[in-house]
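User: Hey, quick favor. My workstation is busy. Could you predict this chain's structure for me?
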Amino acid sequence: LWNRTAAAGLDAYARAHPGRARSVALAEALALGRSERLTADLRESYRRGGIYHLLVFSGMQIAIAAAFLSLILRGFGAPRAADLMLLLLSLTAPPFAGHEASVSRASWMLGLYAASRLMQRPTPAANLLFVSAMIRLTLVPTELSNAGFLLTYAATGGLVLFGPALAALFARRKFLLALAAGLGAEIATTGLVLFFFHQYVIGSSLVTIALSPLVTAMLALSASAALAVVFCPAATGLCLEALSRLDGLIAMATDLIANRLGLFGFAPRPHLFVLLAAWIASLLLFAISRSRQTRIAAVLLLLVPVADSLVLARTRAHIRGPQLEMLDVGQGDSMLLRTSTGSMLVDGGGKAGDDDFGRRVLLPMLAERAVRSIDVIALSHPDGDHCGGLPGVVAAIPVHEIWISRRHLDSLCGQRLLDLASNRHILVLLMPATPEMRRIGLRIEPLVPRLTFKHSPVNNSSVVYRITAAGTRVLLTGDIEKDAETLLADEERETISADILKVAHHGSRTSSSEGFIDAVRPRIALISCGFRNPFGHPGAVTLSRLRQHHAVTYRTDRNGAILLRLGEWPTPVETESQRIP
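Assistant: No problem, here it is.
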């Protein structure tokens, strides 16, 4: 009830003062555990600085509240009352802010700590950590594979287990103990962050320590705003203004970390068996040894998955010859072309209502392939299932050129790409820029239908790319339908013949007409469509027509991502079996 009352007041304030929307979103996230109003840009800013965990309601808020209550009550000479209040806080925090893993972990540890003090049986922090983990796993066994659960317990374990081991290196230098604890937390979580999110922030523990006072002040202002909007509305604006100024300071810090110093990046995730082996070996060494040197070695074992990720990044970044990969982005299209000199991404998939698709789905796929920058991003047409993931990529990694048709400039996604290109100083080429272009060792011919069609004008206006590499011809068709296919077959019959065809419009029956397939004469056909998609793609007529023309057909809904090494004429390699509904 308290939470809903404060949230309703802040929501009303945000509607009356649109300029305060970001501050209200921060206040609700920090003080109320409500992150729904956080924009993708706001989340990404904190994430790139390695402090997103401070932005949402977590164990930090519970620890600060516990410390505040304890200091006040013990200052008045009431230690038993302090322990009772801590026990009460541990019971009320999860219903108030939600039962997320970090909130649950902090609440259970706090409750066990208070109970042990009340029973005059003080318990080491490590015991509190492990008992709380057992309670959580008993109640919710599936948490064992949950990223939030693993990260909150790894970070806390790094503080209370690995931190003291590293602190032994700084004997008699107590001012470095906080650094050692933070470093222990970073070592404990880096492998997991790489595994689950394909990203890293070097020195995130130092950033957390440095910015925690600012975030603590933001938490106090957020709580004050939540109270003021109910009891003293006139003070709400002052609290949110101060919150906005602190947020500005943190934005400057995260920009310095991620953009100017380059401490944020993407990388392939380490192998699961390497990650598990490092953790099990580390915990066993801690359990059986009290030797300082052995325990430090146990901590350093957790860096083995990081080394594994670095090796994968180096090996996967080197491409011997040109290759084409149809990424499994569900009911959408995304084609990645790579050579020894660079990469080209044609379309980026997407999902209706999911503005975070690029960062959440497409960027991890690129990171897994060690793609750190893209030479060319080419957009076939601006539908969400082709364009939706591209803004997230452009905003996150270096892109040198963006290719887009003149007909698509006024679309919503086209405008987003143009705005990002302007802000990041990316060259934009309007298709068809020239009849033929050469990039990263590829010969690329953009084909744009000269007519505007009455039926499905957006699909039929798709830019078709004919690409030649290592003697292999590839035709990427966007979502063109029968009208545009007929025009191309009539006017570009000699140009559109290809060895590999990206089947238009996910294999829909409205595309892949007889005349067009006869003109292309593909040997391999690739279809990108979602697993059990509601449109029935690919159509039975399309599949039958491809069989009649003796084209070997591969589909992402059945084969996952498909990799073709151009020039070798291989059987495609399935590189990923993930299904995006």
